[in-house]
Design brief:
Order of helices and strands of chain B: EEEHEEEEEHHEH
Helix content of chain A: 10-25%
Radius of gyration of chain A: 21 Å
Shape of chain A: globular
Number of helices of chain A: 7
CATH class of chain B: Mainly Beta
Low-confidence stretches of chain A: 1-11
Largest sheet of chain A: 6 strands, mixed
Helix content of chain B: 10-25%
Largest sheet of chain B: 6 strands, antiparallel
Strand content of chain B: 25-35%
Structural class of chain A: alpha+beta
Strand order of the largest sheet of chain B: 1-2-3-9-8-5
CATH class of the largest domain in chain A: Alpha Beta
Distance between the termini of chain A: 44 Å
Shape of chain B: globular
Number of domains of chain A: 3
CATH superfamily of the largest domain in chain A: Probable tRNA modification gtpase trme, domain 1
CATH topology of the largest domain in chain A: Gyrase A, domain 2
Number of strands of chain B: 9
Mean pLDDT of chain A: 93
Low-confidence stretches of chain B: none
Oligomer: heterodimer
Number of domains of chain B: 1
Distance between the termini of chain B: 23 Å
Strand order of the largest sheet of chain A: 9-10-11-8-2-12
Number of strands of chain A: 18
CATH architecture of chain B: Beta Barrel
């Protein structure tokens, strides 16, 4: 058979353990365990740490308290993405940035090149010092609580604390890339197997299973989350990616700010939108999108699917694509070129899936 | 594991000949490589097939795969249960999850295909490459 593999942004780790669908459903109904040690970490320290973080990222890191994290963008001077990342404030003079695996070195060099204040901030490319494991799902809290005395039940979403997990010192963050409640643990690499096996054992009776990159992708797509290299890259601005909520123009100057202010004035032409397929056909990354001709006579314009896949929990076929702004409202009919067919789809609001509170 | 009265292609399709009719499917190796099957696209009854040419697709969550006709002929039946339950391709690829039945245009083609022993050896080689 002529099987074609979908690119997963440069990752080369297990795509699945027991099957993508089972792993996806386990994460939504019980819990899933993800080895995400490939993610990158950059430490920023010193009296100019906040200044540097504020200069190179789009969100307002000055709003963070100790133990709080925020999703943000590392932007070019054009307001497009070098990467997306999480900014954690450990202390007023100490920030931990979690970046994409494939961009680790690029991001570090980029930040270093802009670290030219009078007194530099201390920068460390710390990927080799950290392993990372994520446990996600409604049962994640209960399972992790068995292995740590840290008061994680009281940890608010996008907050973190230091504590021991199975006796291992960890940064325990209530963050994730699945749309479920859950935790991401950062710790020293020699403890990887211990934490992995400890969690699997502690969560076995609750239905915790290991999950690979295949399920990681379908989970984040259902939750409407971006993947660098797909929804965002150095050709997409923050406004076009519909990420204005992580872009705080008023915080002061930062890389890309001028370009973004200018683009806000002229207006954007395209925007990232979610869509649902209307029959059984599946839209995949890279397939061509056109706008169905309707009574308002919008000319069919081409875009491409940035991420497309079956959604195992919603039992629909979904995707995201950049479409002309006029065609981005929910209900707009679009067509996806799938082999010799123009498959019907409809724009829907994001996220596709939101967990019950 | 691989039925001894079936014949196999390098592309991991099988054909089971009874009289002038061949039942066609994909092998257990193929479904395992694909992962969870979510969609199958098959030709209509009456379609003329050419051996070696693509006649449809099997889709998993992560990939789209062409399926190639092991034999030439005319499609006489299509397995309709795959429409609502494509996942049976993962659980019973050699039995319940047959794809199509074909009226053979040239029965001699079948002898060019691998028998079960040859296919098992072929797959064993492939699996060695995977674990390398």
């Amino acid at each position: 058979m002529g099987a074609k593999m979908v690119d997963f942004g440069g990752w080369d780790m297990p795509v699945e353990y027991s099957g993508i669908v089972g792993e996806h459903l386990a994460t939504r109904t019980a819990a899933g365990l993800f080895d995400v040690s490939h993610m990158g970490e950059i430490e920023v320290r010193g009296p100019r740490a906040l200044d540097l973080v504020q200069r190179v990222t789009s969100n307002n890191a000055a709003k963070l308290a100790d133990g709080q994290a925020q999703y943000s963008g590392l932007l070019t001077s054009a307001g497009t993405f070098v990467d997306d990342l999480l900014v954690h404030r450990i202390a007023p003079l100490h920030y931990l940035l979690c970046v994409n695996a494939s961009n680790q070195d690029k991001d570090f060099e980029y930040i270093r090149d802009h670290n030219n204040f009078g007194a530099h901030a201390e920068l460390e490319n710390a990927g080799a010092r950290y392993s990372q494991i994520a446990i996600q799902g409604p049962k994640a809290l209960g399972i992790l609580a068995r292995l740590t005395p840290a008061p994680i039940a009281a940890l608010k979403y996008y907050h973190f604390a230091f504590g021991e997990v199975d006796g291992v010192h960890c940064l325990i963050a209530r963050t994730g890339y699945t749309g479920e409640d859950g935790f991401e643990l950062y710790f020293s690499p020699e403890f990887s197997e211990r934490i992995w096996n400890g969690l699997l054992q502690a969560g076995h009776a609750d239905g915790l299973i290991p999950c690979g990159l295949g399920a990681r992708n379908t989970l984040r797509l259902e939750a409407g989350m971006c993947l660098y290299g797909h929804e965002i890259d150095d050709t997409t601005t923050v406004w076009e990616a519909n990420l204005s909520w992580i872009c705080k123009i008023d915080k002061g100057d930062f890389l890309g700010r001028d370009a973004l202010i200018a683009q806000k004035q002229t207006g954007i032409e395209r925007i990232l939108a979610g869509f649902e397929m209307q029959d059984r056909l599946i839209a995949r990354d890279g397939y061509v999108v056109s706008i169905a001709r309707g009574p308002s006579s919008i000319a069919p314009a081409a875009g491409r699917v940035t991420s497309g896949s079956p959604a195992p929990f919603l039992k629909k076929n979904i995707g995201m694509a950049y479409v002309p702004v006029q065609a981005s409202t929910a209900g707009t009919k679009i067509q996806i070129g799938i082999r010799s067919t123009q498959a019907p789809a409809v724009i829907v609001p994001l996220p596709f899936y939101k967990r019950a509170k | 594991m691989y039925p001894s009265d079936y014949r196999y292609t390098k592309e991991h399709e099988w054909v089971h000949v009874e009289g002038h009719t061949g039942t066609v499917g994909i092998t257990s190796y193929a479904q395992h490589e694909l992962g969870d099957v979510v969609f199958v696209e098959l030709p209509k009854v009456g379609t003329k097939l050419e051996a070696g040419a693509s006649f449809g697709t099997v889709e998993s969550v992560k990939a789209v795969s062409d399926i190639y006709a092991p034999v030439s002929g005319e499609v006489t039946e299509v397995n309709s249960s795959l429409k609502d339950a494509p996942e049976i391709l993962n659980t019973d690829p050699h039995g319940q999850a047959w794809l199509i039945k074909v009226k053979l245009a040239n029965p001699a083609e079948v002898s060019k295909l691998m028998d079960a022993a040859a296919y098992e050896a072929y797959v064993a080689e492939k699996e060695k490459d995977h674990s390398a």
